[in-house]
Amino acid sequence: MQSIGCLSTYCRADGYNCNSLPDVSYLHEILFVLQMNFMKELMQLCYTFFSMLQISEEPIINNSLFKLESYGMELFTNLKEWFVSIHIQEQIRDVDFTGLFTNPWFIIPFALMVCYLLYKQSWRDLIIITIFIAVWWVSGTDYMNSLLVDGEIQIGKILPVIFGGAAVLGFVIYLFFGRSD
After folding, report:
1. Average pLDDT of the chain?
2. What contacts 154, CB < 8 A, 6 or more positions away?
3. pTM for the whole structure
């Protein structure tokens, strides 16, 4: 009883070890020939494909790319016009707190994000978002607008802002690096 195609030490049914390996030295030559034939066929297929695309003086592929590019530019133009029409950028720049949080284009995704973070119990991210919103809101207050009078910084008013900012920055650094969830 002989074992055929034994590639490693194998215990046959009759209890003898099969230590002989088949001769596979010719396999690398077969693989090389197959690889070369495959590459040749692939090159011919690519040549046939690209020659079919060049029906006129200007290849179709260039027209397709141009159409794709113009469609992409049209898409970005439409997105830009839509973003301008919902006024979120103006509300953020002007620190219009009530306007922004009553804008459905902002509040619905924001509420979904907060609900998701609550579901995931990502307290660090919720605290950082709250701090970001608080800093944004404080930046629009009358106190912040009175820090500069006639182009001069009011040192008595800016010191609490600097120390408060340093404390908030220290707390955010602690949240990122000082503790683990």
Report:
1. 74
2. 146, 147, 148
3. 0.52
